[in-house]
Write a structure and sequence with these properties.
Elements lengths: L43 E10 L3 E10 L2 E10 L2 H26 L7 E13 L2 E12 L2 E10 L4 H20 L1
Antiparallel strand pairs: 1-2, 2-3, 4-5, 5-6
């Protein structure tokens, strides 16, 4: 019996009937690698490095990538739990500022005065998980915009801080370029 799959209707029956049909050979499909346009691209985390220095100080370097180019931001701070997380966020913001300046130069656009200032980092417990919340103030010329991002802690708190900071700034940065 030949069955046309486009004309099958489903009904409940007490009799079980099994109909088998050989699968039709599939036509080859051409798969193209589609790269996102600049307006669709994201700033991606490539890696980070945390070094403890003498005197309970910490140095953090965060490397990000945007449109194939790498940018690194650095920050120093006290090696205390809260200050350490804030230092990670400031290093991430520094890398993002480097990205903004490089993109403005590449596109030959005046960027004006751009500053990303950390408002704070908070560790939260919710829904039986730990989350990081990052607040950022984006200052562009005379405008100040408050941004926020959150990330669950999967791995280290430092990585979650970086991801939350990138989430907070993503749309604002993408809206400029």
């Amino acid at each position: 019996m030949e069955v046309t799959y486009r004309k099958i209707s489903v009904a409940q029956s007490s009799d079980a009937v099994k109909v088998e049909k050989e699968p039709e050979p599939q036509k080859p499909v051409l798969i193209e690698k589609i790269l996102p346009s600049r307006s669709e691209s994201r700033i991606l985390l490539l890696g980070h490095q945390v070094e403890t220095e003498r005197g309970r100080r910490v140095k953090v370097a965060v490397t990000v990538e945007w449109t194939g180019d790498e940018y690194t931001g650095e920050a120093w701070g006290a090696d205390l739990p809260r200050s350490r997380l804030e230092t990670v966020a400031r290093a991430t913001l520094s890398a993002i500022e480097e990205t903004i300046l490089a993109q403005a130069q590449e596109q030959e656009r005046p960027v004006g005065s751009v500053t990303l200032a950390l408002d704070g980092v908070k560790v939260l417990e919710a829904f039986d998980r730990t989350y990081i919340l990052v607040g950022v103030n984006a200052v562009h010329d005379r405008d100040v915009v408050t941004l926020a991002g959150a990330s669950p802690v999967e791995g280290t708190q430092e990585r979650a801080v970086i991801l939350a900071t990138l989430q907070a700034t993503h749309r604002w940065v993408r809206g400029r370029f």
